[in-house]
Amino acid sequence: MMKQTKWLVSLMVCLALMAISAAGAQEKLDTIPLPSLSYSIGKEVDSIMSPSSLQPFFAGLDSLRAGKDTVLTVVHLGDSHIQAGYYSGQMMRLLQAQFGNAGRGWIAPFKLSRTNEPDDYFISSAIREWVAGRCIQANKKCPVGIGGIGIQSVSPSINLDVRIAPNNGAGYSFSQAIFYRGEKSMPMLPTGPLKDSVQTSLAMVPAVAGVMADTFRIAYPVDTLQLHSTRRKQGTDQLLPASSFRNVYYGFSLTNGNPGVLYHSIGVNGAMFVNYTDESYVRQLALLKPSLLIVSLGTNETFGRRFNSEEFSGQVRAFISLVKKYMPDTAILLTTPPECYKRTYVDKKRTYVRNANTQLAAKALVKVAHEEGLACWDLFTATGGKSSCTKWHKERLMGRDRIHFTKEGYREQGTLLYRALMQTKNKKDDDR
């Protein structure tokens, strides 16, 4: 009897050890693999400050990995570092590779507003004369939308063609497009070969004050959507006079109907915190309903002649206050600006020196994030900290202006951010 009891105890211990081992194996399987870095010129920051504020977002990622049919939305807001699309685009690709691709997300008519556009899509028009409004303008030439820009035309007949780039946009075919326009603008209807495959729902009331959101649902995934304006009064054959419209258009949100991460990249050249600190703008941004808002700003503020950390901190807080008011359920992740150069003159000769203010801005952002209970990732430190711009420039990862970065440089920063976010998530999972 004693031997039998010992045998049973031994069996139970073995089973328990097997269960623990299996759980450990499952935990390993659940650990997010991290992509390798292409360059070794920085001090990788593998964790994010105040990670507890990201727990709801991490829970959303877990749901996607568990197979839940849902969409988790991220908005990455910034300046020219984001408008280029390489830094945020790398983050988007890496997240979607692990958790599912729900679509390309926000796209704006940058080229029509005569500025650079990300290289994975095109928005074109037969209209050449557009008036462009940008959030950085003191007196905006036309209203701006979710993307921080707007385009306006007085033409009585307007077309917009949306096309996903065949190579750079691979994987971003879409089956739904939400089109954001001014309330008094001519609505658009599908045209071209696919028009009979598109179901159109024109907005009857504004999504927020002054902004209409029309929806185009396509029977199957496509890479192109062609639209043309209509002056026809909805539900009638009556044509309204062209003079009764104020044709302002903002951009599109493209989705594919699949579960996964929907990543909206929104950046405007020259933008600062103060340019987005506008109640009407933040209310528009809230229409995207992000689970996570990544804010990558601060570089342009550091070029002011009299940069002041306290003044800058106040500007950051003012923006955060509006976000908390209109997006109370959104997790916020602040990132610090990387170091760059600034141009100066020595003995009447132009030269470049490190922009010491970026370090001050980084410290201020870390402090604000801590005091506001926000997550923060220190890109300044991750890219090497003080004097790191020399290394990035030497490796040819910085642009000719020594402020911006090359495609490779931006993609490396996107990888750094993704690694930091996933390492933070993996650590949180290990602690549970």
Based on Cα principal axes, name the global outline.
globular
Residues in β-strands, percent: 15-25%
Biggest sheet: strands, sense, closure?
7 strands, antiparallel
Which residues form runs of ≥5 with pLDDT under 50? 1-29
* Corresponding CATH architecture of the largest domain: 3-Layer(aba) Sandwich
Protein name: SGNH hydrolase-type esterase domain-containing protein
Keywords: Signal
Organism: Parabacteroides acidifaciens
InterPro entries: Iah1-like, SGNH_hydro, SGNH_hydro_sf
Describe the SSE topology.
Blueprint: H1 2-30, H2 55-65, E1 71-78, H3 80-83, H4 86-99, E2 105-107, E3 121-124, E4 131-134, E5 149-153, E6 159-164, E7 174-182, E8 188-190, E9 198-201, E10 211-222, E11 224-229, E12 247-255, E13 260-267, H5 273-276, H6 279-285, E14 292-296, H7 309-326, E15 331-335, E16 341-346, E17 349-354, H8 357-372, E18 375-377, H9 379-382, H10 388-394, H11 407-431
Parallel strand pairs: 1-13, 1-14, 14-15, 15-18
Antiparallel strand pairs: 2-12, 3-6, 4-5, 5-12, 6-11, 7-10, 7-12, 8-11, 9-10, 16-17
Helix pairs in contact: 4-11, 7-8
Q: What report would you give on this structure?
A:
This is SGNH hydrolase-type esterase domain-containing protein. InterPro entries: Iah1-like, SGNH_hydro, SGNH_hydro_sf. Residues 1-25 form the signal peptide. By secondary structure, this protein is α+β, with helices and mostly antiparallel strands. The chain has two domains: 38-102 and 259-432, Rossmann fold (3-Layer(aba) Sandwich), CATH 3.40.50.1110; 106-257, Jelly Rolls. 32% of the residues lie in helices and 25% in strands. The chain has helices spanning 2-30, 55-65, 80-83, 86-99, 273-276, 279-285, 309-326, 357-372, 379-382, 388-394, 407-431; strands at residues 71-78, 105-107, 121-124, 131-134, 149-153, 159-164, 174-182, 188-190, 198-201, 211-222, 224-229, 247-255, 260-267, 292-296, 331-335, 341-346, 349-354, 375-377. Strand 14 (292-296), helix 7 (309-326) and strand 15 form a beta-alpha-beta unit. The longest helix is centred in the N-terminal third of the chain and has 29 residues, at 2-30. The radius of gyration is 25 Å and the shape is globular. It starts with a helix and ends with a helix. Mean pLDDT is 91; it is low at 1-29.
